[in-house]
Amino acid sequence: MKNFLKISYLIVLLLTGTYPANSAEKVELLKTDWSFKSLFGKFDRGSLQRGYQVYTEICASCHSMKYVSYRNLAEPGGPEFTEEQVQAIAGNFEVTDGPNGDGEMFIRPAKLSDKFVMPFENVKAAQAANGGAYPPDMSVLAKARSGGVDYIYSVLLGYEDPPSGVILDDGVYYNKYMYGNNIKMAKPLSDDLIKYSDGTVASEEQMAKDVTTFLMWAAEPHLEARHKMGFKAILYLIILTILVYYSMKKIWSRIEPEV
Amino acid sequence: MSDQVYVPKSKFGKWFNDRLPLLTLASHLTDYPTPKNLNYWWTFGGILTFCLITQIVTGLTLAMHYIAHADLAFESVEHIMRDVNYGWLIRYIHANGASMFFLAVYIHIFRSLFYGSYKSPREIIWIIGIIIYLLMMASAFMGYVLPWGQMSFWGATVITNLFSAIPLVGEGIVNWLWGGYSVDNPTLTRFFTLHYLLPFLILGLVVLHIWALHIPGNNNPIGIDVKKPSKDTVPFHPYIVIKDVFALLMFIIVFAFFVFYSPNILGHADNYIEANPMVTPTHIVPEWYLLPFYAILRSVPDKLMGVVAMLSAILILAALPWLDTSKIRSAVFRPLYKQFYWILVVDVLILGYVGAMPAEGLYLLIARVATAYYFIHFLIILPILGFKEKTIPLPLSITDPVLGGFPNTKIVKKKESLD
User: CA distances (Å), B79 to each of A67, A115, A218, B66, B87, in order?
Assistant: First the structure.
């Protein structure tokens, strides 16, 4: 047993010790309590629904979310809108389908099975409309930045006037947390920019938190299932390990009192 | 090897066994006399077998859904994560499984270094092990390319470019590896093919590794030869099996913790950005398990010499049975070697740490010192130590605390006949 403690200690040491950390200019990210972070963490359903509202009313005009389908919005572990609600949401978008029997492409309202309709046809079109910068696809954004949700939350709230001496080009903004401090996205959030349908006060922090929660779900739609299964799996493993431990003791006691 | 010849009890069993001695093999595997003093560091062989099988099973499942195409690979991985039933679980087991595999293999290797398991008569086991380790690194590297994220793409570019350091034919070799003039779709499809093939080669080598092990039998923490079977040994089943299962379960708990609660902590965030040949990430770093070698590569100012140093750092291990001149196996009886052993462990950890850091300033200096020490350990310290070190007397057997034993039974026999 003592050896095992040593091994576990070594494992922790190895994995934490060699984990690549960026040494360059560390800025302390803003912290907020995320409901999904702990071992039993779940998404805050209300926050996800509000987050979707922020995404669709603000972000979606530039940022695509091409790996998420409308049906996902109604699935367990997500915002859990009702199917009717999601059908109504999908109905607001148009997709090109086809070819039909006459060989023509046609436009129809989006269905549950469609992926989120992209704001631009392609990356080039997105760049052309955004001063050369491509607004990154948001499907896995929460996993694609070191710092994850804390980083995204911080960037959303990190806009400030540039320090004296820093001269910014046209269409470039200063952000305290953005890597390199220059960002081509104008400050996206401000108090009461939208009106939450559930009556929550749409403060800047509230919107940032809600939309970041939504992005985390979009990046990791099975997070709740994963946490739930993990608890069961590890509990099972611990019980099994204890049983095997006593079996081992018993078997080895035939020849030696101590293993 | 058990001395008695196995005879099946049933008539059919005997008929079958005469034609294909599978039952004899099974009997050998269960009765296999194993030193009874094996500690938990010896359980990692079984754990590694588990890791390999887990990687193969999850990998086969992933391959049913993955699309090896530069335009579709990233999307197909997202498809696995979102829409395939329990696809997220299978992929996270596979991705973290690679890290767990390397964690276990490093413990396995360092166990061998501590207890001198590479020494006569186990040199072939050791060399097969080094080949397995090399194939593991190749498989892991190519596997990391498959999701076609930013680190996949740029990691592949950096590593394949190493071959351009070869004089005259380097450029040609790199283009041949890529199947074009840059890392692109042909590179991805061949990496996928090889990533599929190599694990089965590893599996074959593992069989040889175990076969070679079963000829002399296990080394043990005391590092003396044991008489088999004797009161120093226990049959593999059930004694060692149950102990291996217990250790394996502990290992799986750690594994499960990563899979379920921090599945991405060992990966790099940039790999969730689709590969873009026009944008280079600020720091290109390999996976953690390759970092010590990456540090060695970067610590040499010349590209070709860097590659040579990195390869030698691995290949030098194959010469270890002859570089270590001491006849005593276990570090338990080698007070000086024990200290150098731990210095080497720290040295490799330092190399891993600086491998993750930018190669500049103090980090570069530390990397150079650590690299130099790594080679000094194997090329200078070990050969000299074997002659200079005053070792502690060995016991006669595992059960007898009587001193005066020798690492090799042949010497004991010779001595007995002299008496």
Answer: 8, 12, 13, 9, 8
Q: Which token pair is B390?
A: 């005053």
pLDDT over 60 at A4, yes or no: no
Residue B58 has pLDDT above 90, yes or no: yes
Is residue B202 scored above 50 in pLDDT?
Answer: yes
* Rounded Cα–Cα distance for residues B232 and B37 (Å): 8
Spatial distance between the Cα atoms of B306 and B308, rounded to a whole number of angstroms: 5
B positions 28-57 inside 8 Å of A (CB):
36, 39-41
Burial B351-367 (b: 16+ CB within 10 A, else e): bbbbbbbeeeeebbebb
Q: Are B244 and B41 in contact (CB under 8 A)?
A: no
Phi, psi of B96 (to 5 degrees): -75, -25
Q: What is the total residue count of chain B? A: 419
Contacts of A128 (CB under 8 A, 6+ apart): none
Task: Give every CB contact of residue B58 below 8 A, 6+ residues apart in sequence.
Answer: B90, B91, B93, B94, B97
Task: Quote the distance between the C-alpha of residue A210 and its chain's center.
Answer: 11
Give the SS3 label for residue B196. helix
Neighbours of B325 (CB within 10 A): 13
Do B256 and A245 make contact, defined as CB atoms within 8 angstroms? no
CA A254 to CA A257: how far, in whole Å?
8
Its sign, for the CA torsion B376, B377, B379, B383, is positive
The model scores a pTM over 0.90: yes
Helix B291-299 vs helix B335-356: angle between axes, to the nearest 10 degrees?
80
Cβ of B351 under 8 Å from any chain A Cβ? Answer: no
Query: Which residue has 């079984």 as its token pair?
Result: B46
Residues facing A174 on adjacent strands: A182
Neighbouring residues of A17: CB distance < 8 A, sequence distance ≥ 6:
B349, B352, B353
The residue ranges of every structural domain in chain A are 223-259
Q: What is the pLDDT of residue A170?
A: 85
- The residues, any chain, with a CB within 8 Å of residue B70's CB and separated by 6 or more, are B148, B184, B185, B188, B275
The CA distance from A157 to A179, in Å, is 14
A98-112, B126-140, B386-400: least confidently modelled range: B386-400
ipTM of the assembly? Answer: 0.90
With CA atoms as reference, the chain B residue closest to A227 would be B260
Sketch out chain B's domains with CATH numbers. 32-418 (1.20.810.10)
Query: DSSP string covering A8-42, please?
Result: HHHHHHHHHHTS----S---PPP----TTSSTT--
> How big is chain A, counted in residues?
259
**Chains A & B: contacts with CB separation below 8 Å:** 128
Q: Given the structure tokens 């294909």, which residue do they identify?
A: B20
Interface test with A, best of B102, B260, B290 (most A CBs within 10 A): B260
Residue in B311, B325, B327 with CA at minimum distance from that of residue B378: B325
A175 strand-pairing partners? A159
What's the rounded Cα separation, in Å, for the pair A235 and B209? 35
